[in-house]
Design a protein that fits this description.
Blueprint lengths: L3 H39 L4 H26 L2 H9 L8 H7 L11 H12 L3 H4 L2 E2 L5 E2 L3 E7 L5 E7 L3 H22 L6 H15 L1 H14 L6 E2 L3 E6 L3 E5 L4 E2 L3 H6 L4 H19 L1 E3 L7 E3 L5 E3 L5 E3 L2 H15 L3 H11 L2 E2 L4 H12 L6 H14 L2 E3 L2 H20 L5 H14 L8
Parallel strand pairs: 5-11
Antiparallel strand pairs: 1-3, 2-3, 3-4, 4-7, 6-7, 8-10, 9-12, 10-11, 13-14
Length: about 450
């Protein structure tokens, strides 16, 4: 009898993995067949009818991927969220559909979370915490967070990774790489192996909470020179690969309606404070929070800004840090030749090297998707069709997400300067070989 339960669990795990692999294979095959059918149909169509046929196929494929992610969760939600940011590589239908995944992660039952904490930290929850809230503060693709109080009275946040995520992520990465590799062999124009490789490199970093604790401490030490920036302290003795406890920071969501109304008069200062935080991380330290979004930024009652979640923290090579500094200065000065040189220095390659074509594509990486409406989206699709991106480093994509965040924040708060102008003092200091100073 003692061997029955482990054997049953092993069989159930193998069956679950087989079902996931089959689900991915079926979805991939359906999408591939759909594109081949559309390819044949489009040969007999012209103009708007041809474009409409392709657009509808993109929408069907994007919806199939959306439902796959909602069904399988874990890495597939994370992958969908990542693809939603890659407007440089995928049609607009994909980014429109997959961006909905930001809000489609249901929380796990409190009993499962408590069991995971006790397994990881080796003590009952009642011994670890004086109070543990069963209702989570939030749930994401790989983990969820709960508020609690330690026996010494400190209010804390407990981040708990879902128990099965580690094994499934490895399986899911293999499945994705296999599917994309097979597609690239048959359809060289749809080669997304670089995207999947980037996902495969990033997600495992987020699974190691010991590493996240180390990155949190490092970033906190680096940003200690900025008095208006807060990074939650890690609670020693409450860290494992799948559980991370940090101090609770009281604050409001950055772009909530109440928050915007409260900071009507100092929105520019608030935007500059956030720009200082990222300017210092990227251009001074070369170590930055690479998954920036408003949910990871809180504004405290005294006006300070708290940065949360350092699961995906990126260390920049020196060449990239300097190349980005050149790009910031050139863009802030609207120096077109210098912008083109900076892009080349960073490793960006496009089919056409005409300045007007490259500059239009540049906006793909430094504009939030919700700005400028559908007309701009149409221009972006047209620009990509006429001048495809042949190479763009993953580091630049992550930096582009930071600039996009700063642009969205600045627009919402009424900041008078563009992101590149706010980052410019840090970039100029890097190029001059001097330490940058935050604005007062």
């Amino acid at each position: 009898m003692g061997r029955t339960l482990p054997y049953t669990s092993l069989v159930n795990e193998l069956l679950q993995r087989g079902r996931r692999s089959l689900r991915v294979a079926r979805t991939g095959a359906a999408i591939y067949v759909g594109y081949k059918r559309t390819q044949r149909r489009a040969r007999g169509l012209e103009g708007a009818a041809r474009e409409l046929a392709w657009e509808r196929q993109h929408e069907r494929a994007a919806e199939a991927l959306y439902h796959l992610a909602v069904d399988l969760k874990g890495l597939y939600i994370k992958t969908g969220q990542f693809i939603a940011t890659r407007s440089d590589l995928v049609p607009a239908a994909y980014t429109a559909s997959l961006s909905r995944l930001q809000d489609r992660v249901p929380p796990r039952p409190a009993g499962q979370v408590r069991a995971a904490i006790e397994h990881e930290l080796g003590r009952p929850v009642r011994e670890l915490f004086d109070r543990f809230d069963n209702e989570p503060l939030g749930a994401a693709s790989l983990a969820q967070v709960h508020r609690a109080r330690l026996h010494d009275g400190r209010e804390v946040v407990v981040k708990v990774q879902y128990p099965e995520v580690g094994g499934l992520v490895r399986l899911d990465v293999r499945n994705l790489k296999t599917a994309v590799r097979l597609l690239a062999r048959r359809e060289p124009n749809f080669d997304y192996r670089a995207v999947v490789d980037e996902i495969g490199n990033q997600v495992p970093l987020e699974l190691d909470f010991v590493r996240e604790a180390e990155m949190t401490r490092r970033v906190a030490g680096n940003l200690a020179v900025l008095p208006r920036i807060v990074v939650p302290r890690v609670v020693d003795g409450y860290v494992s690969r799948r559980v991370l406890v940090t101090e609770f920071v009281p604050g409001m969501r950055l772009l909530g309606e109440e928050q915007r109304a409260h900071h009507t008069n100092d929105g520019g200062q608030l935007a500059q404070t956030i720009a200082d935080a990222y300017g210092h991380q990227i251009l001074v330290d070369g170590l930055f929070q690479a998954d920036p979004h408003p949910g990871n930024i809180l504004v405290l009652p005294d006006g300070r800004v708290a940065l949360l979640d350092f699961g995906l923290t990126k260390e920049l090579p020196e060449a990239v840090r300097v190349g980005f500094a050149h790009l910031v200065v050139a863009t802030a000065a609207r120096d077109v030749p210098a912008i083109l040189r900076a892009f080349a220095e960073l490793g960006v390659r496009t089919k056409s090297d005409r300045p007007e074509d490259v500059l239009l594509l540049m906006r793909l990486f430094f504009e939030p998707r919700d700005m400028n409406g559908g007309a701009f989206e149409t221009r972006r699709r047209s620009a990509l069709a006429q001048n495809p991106v042949e190479a763009i480093p993953g580091d630049l994509v992550l930096l582009g997400r930071v600039v996009g965040l700063l642009r969205g924040v600045g627009a919402s708060l009424g900041a008078p300067l563009s992101p590149m102008q706010m980052l410019r003092p840090y970039a100029e200091a890097v190029l001059a070989g001097q330490p940058a100073q935050a604005r007062a």
